[in-house]
Amino acid sequence: MPATRTRAARAQAATPPDTAGETGEPPARSPVTLLRAATTIVIVEQPKDWQAAAGQEVVSASDFLDAPGQHAAHGAAVINLCRSYKYLSVGYYCSLLAEARGYAVLPSVKTINDLSRKAIYCLDTSELDHALNQALDDTDGRPMPAEFSMDIHFGVTGYTPLAALARQIFDTFPTPLMRVEFERDDDWKIAAIRVHNVSTLGDSQLGHARAALQAMALAPEPHRTQVKPYRYHIGILHNPKEELPPSNDAALDRFVDVGRQLGLDVTLIERRDFSRLAEFDALFIRETTAINHHTYLFAKKAESEAMVVIDDSMSILRCTNKVYLADLLRRNGIPTPRTYALQAADLGDIGHIEREIGYPMVMKIPDGAFSRGVSKVGNVEEFRQTAQALLGQSALILVQEYMYTDFDWRIGVLNRQAIFASKYFMSRDHWQIAKRDAQGQAQFGAAQAVLLDEVPADLLAHAVAAANLIGDGLYGVDMKMTARGPVVIEVNDNPNIDAGNEDSVLGDELYRIVLRDIVRRLDIAHGLAAS
Fold this sequence. Notes:
Blueprint: H1 31-35, E1 40-44, E2 56-60, H2 61-66, E3 77-80, H3 90-100, E4 104-106, H4 109-116, H5 118-121, H6 126-136, E5 147-153, H7 163-172, E6 177-184, E7 188-195, H8 203-216, E8 233-237, H9 249-261, E9 265-269, E10 282-285, H10 294-304, E11 308-310, H11 313-319, H12 322-331, E12 339-342, H13 351-356, E13 361-364, E14 374-377, H14 380-391, E15 397-401, E16 407-414, E17 417-425, E18 434-436, E19 442-444, E20 447-450, H15 457-470, E21 474-482, E22 485-493, H16 508-525
């Protein structure tokens, strides 16, 4: 195993090329570029929280969620000043749907999730701690407390000695309002980064925040670090005890063996190997992903080391929330079942949903997987009872028309191209692929791999188009062929590649396709091939 490489040596490996118009949003923008937008939408929960300035449109969170496309034009910047960004809260959904609607948003869902757990954001603070100690070494012998905090408003602080550090923190975690706590043991370090609630700011603090927003629009852009080539070692994250893993043991063995044939060092790693992740050049996740889970932490850590990552953290964020997906697909003209996003306040008037969709309907929690959190409701009583239960877990849920077919199509997409196709048949005497018993155990219908040439051309085209809205990673697009044509049900990161199922047509070529694409990404990142 090679020696651990520095973050600077991998700086480009985790930075994909700009893909304007391909992911449903503008190319990734630095906070400075975002704040230079000609039009800025400021989202608040209460009108008193922010006073509009020139070039700003203040919109309530509830209006923003309810009225897609009725605000500023595509490409405008969104500053989300909701009072909470807690997972699945109104503030969380404002950033999520702003991204789905093509806006550059501050904070992004990625930043919200990064700051939600210290275990995640501490991955990116080591260099900031170093800068902190350098800055505080220059205090001319003035006594310093053992701990203190600093407010940062749009990258600006009132504490001059740490002004440069405040900007670095903002560039790393682009968030409008935050408080950073510092503590000293042998050295200074960042103890916590907390999002500031705009409603708790006094008049002077609000004035400072408005002035800081104007100042940041004039700040210079950061530059990127160049990289050097090196050998390729790929770590495959898996969980030997997972009940329904995305790749079975035989498939994992094929990845290892085919990797060796290609001259790659492919190693199976587990959760306990987190501390040695930087030994690898690339991370390939073959364990079911989730936001509040170590798989997301692995992806973030790998990206902080500038490794090539499949599934990357942004793909995990986008694919694990069905509300985001529904809005993104609708905005981009992808055919889907008729879908409504429902808030608790909407339960008083569901007549328009009943008229348009009709019973039965399908109701979904946004971040469910393997048919968990998905229910079929057959009448108004079941509708209200199920909705109330699901809304206890999420500020928004999805209501979708019920569309039965004997099987679902699964189209595997990698680097914006279809690589495999399978038919997933419904479980016996059930309306879903997975049927769960009272203990939660799942029984699945049969799976059948199909030649890509045998897939209906329009279905295949819509599958690739849907996946391309998420990114250029590895995705599984679930679709149905209906009387009105193909419809996309959802796009999954971390799709199944099982020996005996998805590889039945291509055999080892399927594993070669995936591994060669990881090599391609590494070659591009290290300057060995053109992008």
